[in-house]
Design brief:
By secondary structure, the chain is α/β, with parallel strands linked by helices. It has one domain (about 10-250): Rossmann fold (3-Layer(aba) Sandwich), CATH 3.40.50.720. The protein is about 45% helix and about 15% strand. It is built from eight helices and seven strands; from the N terminus they run βαβαβαβαβαβαααβ. A seven-stranded parallel β-sheet has the order 3-2-1-4-5-6-7, with helices on both faces. Helix 1 (about 15-30) runs parallel beside helix 2 (about 40-50) and helix 3 packs parallel to helix 4 (about 105-130). It is globular, with a radius of gyration of 17 Å. About 45% of the residues are buried. The model has no long low-confidence stretch (mean pLDDT about 95).
């Protein structure tokens, strides 16, 4: 049920962190993978790792906030593989600040990447999925779509708002596209050590001590611990799961 042999997966934000991990997991499950991100040199390293599994991979530079860039990238993927069965909308940014300190530019940056990016990529992938009457779309939101934190390091109001918007978009897409055998679901990771968090949250031992004390699991997420949920929502194991939000946070949202 989790076998992705013969499938083509497209991952945005695939140059590092959770996106790169998921891309490799897709390959290990049998899929060929299209890697999209702005940093072409980092995509090449991920591509080489995937090719070691025996699966095909292509690296496509793409800025998910730019419609022409997205349109060209999706066209390149379809030209290379002929289809897109799985779309992991993973590209995202986390801008710190509250409404009293954020600039309009920072607010727009959050929504342009975290929400508009999903809209633009889906806009050019969904028609092909509708035509083939099959598709699995997984949107990476955040546990911070439904909870917030008073820690100075975690005051990210534009992040909270944009990730909550991802949930609304996920539900709308799920309802509209279920008739085409396309499932659309979202995942809400909590704290994982990635390129994005290593230089901020993981640098503060005081913050980590507090996080570990409050989290039932007593720790942040480890490398690879998101992959099971990604594979579940990307495979036929979740064929009757539609418009859902699965939080992967060690139980942190429970307290």
């Amino acid at each position: 049920m989790f076998d992705l042999s013969g499938k083509v997966a497209m991952v945005t934000g695939a140059s590092a962190g959770l996106g790169a991990d998921a891309a490799l997991a897709y390959a290990q499950a049998g899929a060929d993978v299209a890697l999209l991100a702005r940093r072409a040199e980092k995509l090449t390293a991920v591509k080489e790792e995937i090719e070691k599994t025996g699966r095909r991979a292509i690296a496509v530079p793409c800025d998910v906030t730019d419609e022409e860039s997205v349109k060209a990238a999706v066209s390149a993927v379809l030209q290379a593989f002929g289809r897109i069965d799985i779309l992991l909308n993973n590209a995202g940014v986390a801008v710190r600040g509250g409404v009293d300190t954020l600039s309009v530019e920072d607010w727009n940056k959050s929504f342009d990447t975290n929400v508009k990016g999903i809209f633009l990529v889906s806009k050019y992938v969904v028609p092909q999925m509708k035509e083939q009457k099959y598709g699995k779309i997984v949107n990476i939101a955040s546990v911070n779509a439904v909870i917030a934190d008073k820690s100075d390091l975690f005051i990210r109001h534009s992040y909270n708002a944009s990730k909550a918007a991802v949930l609304g978009l996920t539900k709308g897409m799920a309802c509209s596209y279920a008739q085409y055998n396309i499932t659309v679901n979202a995942i809400g990771p909590a704290l994982f050590e990635t390129e994005m968090t290593a230089g901020t949250l993981f640098k503060s031992q005081e913050f980590l001590n507090g996080y570990n004390t409050l989290n039932p699991a007593g720790r942040p997420g480890k490398k690879g611990e998101l992959n099971g949920t990604v594979l579940y929502l990307s495979s036929d194991a979740s064929s009757y799961v539609q418009g859902q939000f699965i939080i992967v946070d060690g139980g942190g949202a429970l307290v």
